Amino acid sequence: MIRIRQVKVALDCEDKLCDIVAKRLKIASSNILEVHIQKKSLDARRKNDIHYVYEVDVKVKEEGRILKKVFSKDIFLTPKEEYQYPDSGSVSLSSRPVIVGTGPAGLFCAYMLAKAGYHPLIIERGEKVDERVESVMKFWETGVLNPNSNVQFGEGGAGTFSDGKLNTLVKDKYFRGKEVFSIFVEHGAPSEIMYLQKPHIGTDLLRDVVKNIRNSIIRLGGEFLYSTCLTNLVISDQKLVGIEVNHQEIIPCSVLVLAIGHSARDTFSMLYDRGVMMQAKPFAVGVRVQHPQKMIQFSQYGSLDSRLPVADYKLTYTTEKGRGVYSFCMCPGGYVVNASSEEGGLAVNGMSYHDRGSENANSALVVTVGPDDFGHHPLDGVSFQRELEKQAYLAGSGHIPVQLYGDFKDGIFSTSFGEIQPVMKGRYQFSDLKDVLPDYVSSAICEAMPAFGKKITGFDREDTIFAGVESRTSSPVKIIRDDKGEANISGIYPCGEGSGYAGGITTAAMDGIKVSEWIIQKYKPFF
């Protein structure tokens, strides 16, 4: 096949893609046998010339002759871009590999191991996704929290209650990312994620995809245990020989994948106490901001043309004191959700359904923090997050604390909303968010907002809704692993976002595949 890059297509000409490609190849459309889209992105840099840019693979008659005539940096023979399984190692396993966590890192590690014949055991502290959804809905309606099954914990991980964004900046020379997308599509995700510049699944579709991956793992010989929490390690001579679950049962284990997620604070503490090497790492904290989605559309595109996709944004700013402020996990047409996982603490996140159909856009507006702010002990970041969430819980009397931006910067307690009405999952209450955030975070946000308003018209409008606290942007710890993927205790494989090696669904899934490769390369399949 022939690959063609930089194929410019007007908004009203997408049905003419084949003709446009034929013109680039200087052939008649009838000579084209197949067209496969590889990439599709929107170029909205000039609002009077918004168009799509495609990259396609084309099957044609007389490929060699045509390619010789039109070959260039943008027209060339389609390269081979396929993920390759590694060869199995020679070391025998005394027990099947155990994976802790069913977020994207754990699920994809388990899927690859199961497919290669390793019959993994996957343990998850939370519930299956359907039961988990019921627990989360009950929490949003009543405030009754299940500490082990919530927006953070349970089958699918924290990403199950998110926008389901799949974009990543990680370089992918081994095509792990392409394999992740292929597995998603095979299990029910929209096929368009294979080529869209900013792919997303949406929380509603992602739930079924998670179930389908679980069922494939079971068919391939894997096993799942739910409501099963890792509570201790059994170690002999710096080697793992077993794990304790739910403070009672011992499971033999010589290979353990820690795909525990960024909110497994009790597990972090247990691992630290057992001598697993880790260190504090930077993350970011702040608030969720809500604006009308139509405002974002008009600012980004200059119109409300229904042919255009739901608009998003990405904003960055550096304060006069050198601290970074940026938007994170932007959810077009989404909801701000109560994402708490501990009693007496409150954290928020953003979530969108596949259609991104709500009235509001939201994103985290966060400020970088690091060990110099909260301490250099490996668990000091955890303590810092907990204190913020405790203050948020108190400020909102257990509900999501909210405040208008204009009141936040002026130090005024909000009493009513403006034109922007909140779109939230979970109860909320007017509060003073400066009582929640450190002064340096509040002042950084106030400094950044006017700058963001120059990039997105209306971003700094007075009735912009702030909700707090956004504290779970990434893991506060990094569990150290060597160049073969193991921690300082042999047999333990830190994995994914919670261990400090990913940020988001795709990068976590890719890291799950990477960890599976290390295990496959060392060990024989387990039968």
Describe this structure in words.
The chain has about 525 residues and is an alpha/beta fold. The chain has 3 domains: about 1-75, Alpha-Beta Plaits (2-Layer Sandwich); about 100-280 and about 475-520, FAD/NAD(P)-binding domain; about 280-470, no CATH class. Helices cover about 30% and strands about 25% of the residues. It has helices spanning about 15-25, 65-70, 105-115, 130-140, 175-185, 205-220, 265-275, 295-300, 370-375, 380-395, 405-410, 440-455, 505-520, and strands at about 1-10, 30-45, 50-60, 75, 100, 120-125, 225, 230-235, 240-245, 250, 255-260, 280, 285-290, 315-320, 325-330, 335-340, 350, 360-370, 400-405, 425, 430, 465-470, 475-480, 490-495. A 7-stranded mixed sheet has the order 14-15-18-13-22-19-21. The longest helix is centred in the last third of the chain and has 18 residues, at about 505-520.
By DSSP, the count of extended strands is 24
Could you give the order of strands across the largest sheet? 14-15-18-13-22-19-21
Q: Uncertain runs with pLDDT below 50, 5 residues or more? A: none
| Straight-line N-to-C gap | 41 Å
Under CATH, the topology of the largest domain can be stated as: FAD/NAD(P)-binding domain
Oligomeric status = single chain
Strand and helix layout:
Layout: E1 2-10, H1 17-25, E2 32-43, E3 51-60, H2 63-70, E4 75-77, E5 98-100, H3 104-115, E6 121-123, H4 129-142, H5 176-186, H6 203-219, E7 223-225, E8 230-236, E9 239-245, E10 249-252, E11 256-258, H7 265-273, E12 278-280, E13 283-292, H8 293-301, E14 316-318, E15 324-331, E16 335-338, E17 348-351, E18 360-369, H9 371-374, H10 380-395, E19 400-404, H11 405-410, E20 424-425, E21 428-430, H12 439-455, E22 465-470, E23 477-479, E24 492-494, H13 505-522
Parallel strand pairs: 5-6, 5-11, 6-7, 11-24, 16-20, 19-21
Antiparallel strand pairs: 1-3, 1-4, 2-3, 8-9, 9-10, 12-23, 13-18, 13-22, 14-15, 15-18, 16-17, 19-22
